[in-house]
Amino acid sequence: MSYLFLVTIGPVQPFIKSARRTRDLFVGSMLLSELSKAVALALIDPETHLIFPAPISENQLQPDTKLSVANKIIAIIGHEPQEMAKRARTALFERLYSIRNQVFDSLPAIDRPLADHQIETLLDFAWVATPFDEHNYAKTRSRLETLLSARKNTRYFVPFIHTTTSSKNPRYKSSIDGQLECVIPEKYYDRSKPAQLRARDLYQLYKAGPGEQLSGVDLVKRHAKFPGLPVILSTSHIATLPFLKRLNSITDSNSRDKLKNAWSDYIEKIDEQTPLTEKIKGAKHTILGDRDGALLFDERLLIDFTREQYTKAHQCLETFWKEVKEATHSSLRPGPYYAIIHADGDNMGQLINHMAEKGFAQHQELSQRLDAFAQGVGDIVTAYEGVPVYSGGDDVLAFVPLHTALPCAHALAVDFAQKMVFKESDVPRPTLSVGIAIVHHLSLLQDSLDAARDAETCAKNHPQKNALAITVRKRSGEPVTTVGSWSTIYPWLKVLIEHFQQQHIPQGAAYELREVYQSLFLPGETMSTDLMHVLQYEAYRILKRKIMLNQQMSKEAKAATLKDIVDRLRIELSPQTGPIILEETDIASLINELLVVQPIVEAVNMAYGQEEGKK
After folding, report:
1. pLDDT of residue 612
2. Which residue, 213, 122, 203, is CA-closest to 174?
3. Which pLDDT tens digit goes with each residue over 69-108?
């Protein structure tokens, strides 16, 4: 007898999200994929048909391959479900324990029993099965999902383990999630030792920051090694990429040599003071070499160094900035912001149900197309100088520099749409909604991820979906968000960026518009049509005045810029009556669009040598 069989591994989001460094995030997502591959591989035999995933070759499910597998595995099996569940669970924990042992065996003096217990109780393994009706696959799958929902609502609670060495000396909790206990010996946090020695030992032995408490799960994320793991960049380094691209464009050999010498002096001083700075494997920047761009930020020195160390390093960094100014003839400094892209497919449930009506073979085809998209995400993100964090099916998470964030997001949406074209004309065509969060490199990683997820949710809640949402979360002030369908907002943002680059629209225009808007409209009120018209006319007047007073613009450039503004405001210019409103437009959306593109413009100007566009 055949069964439709489903296995899930969790928790997914809490596990991945529990991260302080980018490495924690990368390894967390890769670990879950490796475990899911182990489960899928264990199910394979002559009587098994994998549906999700549906690899072209069994070799794709071997450890450390490029294939990314989601935490939900569906298959048609020919053996008893209990037997297959036992086989899957055994493979899952064998792979998990193999990775755990590789890490823990290399670490000195951790509380191994506690660390082992934390790994053993890390995952939720759930499975359901129902007799397979080959003539009614859709109904069978629907019943399977119902069973899974019931199974997930049935929890097993493991016995409580007392993890306190004594009632007077409780263990510290993990600095990452605040739930699991620290397994690093307390002697490494002894405050009677000099702070520099404590920091050195914690970093060299455990990859822990000064005073950072790490659980067994945290240590696995810090130390696990996967052959397919990409070059992991810190959020600070990603923020510096537009600046580093600009440095690479310096062609004068004398200027390059001076910059290299100044940087070498700075690095020498850094290495004298602390062993905490990491090198980027495989990276070789023209000036920085293999050093993390985080060292370009004064605020990172303040975090990682003592006051005395900071003073010495800061002096050398200032010398480097003097050479940068001489080489570029400008006071260039890296911007503190980077972008997180979070994307998800639209109407996937509708597509999955539709394909289910056609039988499991069509489900396998859908699975293969999703796998093809997921495997191509890495190449797309890398081409735009970013780093892919996770790509499973229609779900994408990536870190990218600001100057490439917008085209990278668009390229992902285009590729997804192309991969999801089926031969049958009646198959719904899914789209990809994308959220981009522009965040500070020192903001808590979990907060930044939340911002990206909020942006993605905003995009998916847009009417008809297939949308892009961008949110800017600066360290002070309220977040600013803009959202629209890909067909309208993407070309319009490109137009705005070009106008800002060419200084056709001054940056102050957005703030003047916002001041007028806030003076005429109170939040919570319902805006009348008359007030909306007043704001449209006022926006036109302000922007027209700023454009016409720009003496650096040609007559043709002024006319072209004004036309773009008029089109966006939905206004028609009549020689007889003046501007006429064609339809109501939300001025708040225009203000947010003007504000959102400004950090992107600054990064583009930084990367391609147009810093004068910042005026």
Report:
1. 41
2. 213
3. 989 999 999 999 999 999 999 999 999 999 999 999 999 8
DSSP string, 145-187: HHHHHHHHTS---PPP----SBTTBPPPBPTTTSSSBP-S-GG
Average pLDDT, the chain: 89
State the sign of the Cα–Cα–Cα–Cα dihedral 475, 478, 484, 488. Answer: negative
How far is it, in rounded angstroms, from Cα 3 to Cα 596?
A: 52
The domain defined by 336-477 folds into Alpha-Beta Plaits (3.30.70)
442 and 336 Cβ atoms separated by less than 8 Å:
yes
The one-letter amino acid at 187 = K
User: What region, left, alpha or beta, does residue 524 occupy, with left being phi > 0 and alpha being psi -120 to 50 degrees?
Assistant: left
- Report helix, strand or coil for 453: helix
DSSP state of 1: -
Distance of CA 6 to the CA centre of its chain: 29
User: Positive or negative CA dihedral for 530, 532, 535, 540?
Assistant: negative
The residue among 232, 184, 243 whose CA lies nearest residue 209 is 184
In the predicted structure, residue 328 carries a pLDDT above the cut 90 = no
Q: Is the pLDDT of residue 200 over 90?
A: no
CA distance 532 to 585: 7
User: What does the chain come to in residues?
Assistant: 615
Percentage of the chain beyond pLDDT 90 is 60
Type of residue at 506:
P
Would the pLDDT of 593 be above 90? yes
What are the distances in angstroms from CA 586 to CA 305, 396, 532, 546, 592? Answer: 48, 31, 7, 21, 10
In whole angstroms, what is the distance from residue 266 CA to residue 56 CA? Answer: 51
Write out pLDDT tens, residues 366-424: 999 999 999 999 999 999 999 999 888 899 999 999 999 999 999 999 999 999 988 87
Domain chopping of the chain, boundaries: 1-168, 235-328, 336-477, 497-614
**pTM (2 d.p.):** 0.91
pLDDT over 90 (residue 42)? yes
Provide the CATH topology of domain 1-168.
Alpha-Beta Plaits (3.30.70)
Query: What tens digit of pLDDT does each residue of 254-283 get?
Result: 999 999 999 999 988 888 776 556 778 777
d(CA 422, CA 354): 12
Please indicate whether the domains covering 1-168 and 336-477 agree at the CATH topology level: yes
Helix (H) or strand (E) holding 126: strand 124-131
